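Try it yourself: sequence plus guanosine-5'-monophosphate, in.
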Amino acid sequence: MSNCLFCRIARGEIPCRKVYEDDEIIAFHDINPAASVHFLMIPKAHIVSLQEVDETHGALLGKMLTLAPRLAKEQGLDNGFRTIMNSGVGGGQEVFHLHIHILGGGRLPSMA
Ligand code: 5GP
Ligand code: ZN
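Structure, out:
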């Protein structure tokens, strides 16, 4: 997806404040943080959202979820963190490349 914003970040065409990178995944700070620590984790492969995943994506999604607590801790979120995945227009998704928000710092307000 040549024009996708997060594909371009994954390819290094748009700069980001990188938190983590391997051959399949990259994590970087959100440009408009909603908490004192707020970063995004994305697969390098273009997947639109959770609405598009199937069983072939299970290992990658599992890897992302198990990486989340490690990166959160490295970013100083010793006391816990929130993960959010907005999926589709109805879910409030704005960038249509699958991503996990990981945020925290202090005590976040209730979601309700
Ligand atoms: P969504 O609403 O799709 O779940 O979240 C997209 C997130 O991407 C938003 O929190 C927004 O601040 C972040 N974002 C949008 N454009 C950029 C960008 O160019 N760089 C970074 N680092 N984050 C971005
Ligand atoms: Zn993409």
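One thing you can check immediately is this: The domain at 5-104 is CATH 3.30.428.10 (HIT family, subunit A).
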